[in-house]
Amino acid sequence: MQNQPQSSRQIVLQPLPKAIGINPAFCVNAQKTLLMKEKVFSLALDAFHVHDENNQEVLQVRAKTFSIHHQKEFFDPQNNPLFTLKHKPFSLPRQYYGETIGDEKQLFHIQDKWHLGGARQVVTFQNLAAGTGEAIELHIAGQWIDRHATIKLGDQLVAEITRTFFNARQILGGLDTYYVTVAPGMDYSLIAAIAVALDERENENKN
Predict the structure, then answer these.
(1) Which of 8, 135, 164, 195 could be disulfide-bonded to 177 (CB atoms 3.0-4.6 Å)?
(2) Which residue did the predictor score with more confidence, 145 or 188?
(3) CATH number of 24-206
């Protein structure tokens, strides 16, 4: 298929028993692969094009310039607002959170957690996608300096984020491209937000 993303290795993720996430519209019954490309000519840092394996736009990520919270606004392909990803300034450990656009109701929270093996990230939210509102906790692990991370719900792998190496835009401009594989039933808009937060976290560490 023309322009279809190809990762270095194909993984197959098991479907979840129910929808997990903050928006049921982004929980689909098939495994989904997102191709997230940083916008080359964007005036704001960390704005992304997000397409699926069929090269169809599935999300828009726009960075707000001159924002103390390093805000990223997420929209669907029809330009409907979804949520804003914000960084909590001066927070130790580092924290990010997602809010609805407009009334600023918190949807999810991402925080570093320290343990003997180093820092990991935990994502907490209420499962609005299933309509239950139950508290959900995802755990992120990986070597983000190599741009690889796994996201688990308990023992089940629900997403994997990998980087494409040595693409021309990255060599010329330092811009990043990610493949994000999402399990059936997992909210891929939430997983995309996690990928953006991890990317921003690593960029801040470099600075």
Answers:
(1) 164
(2) 188
(3) 2.40.160.200
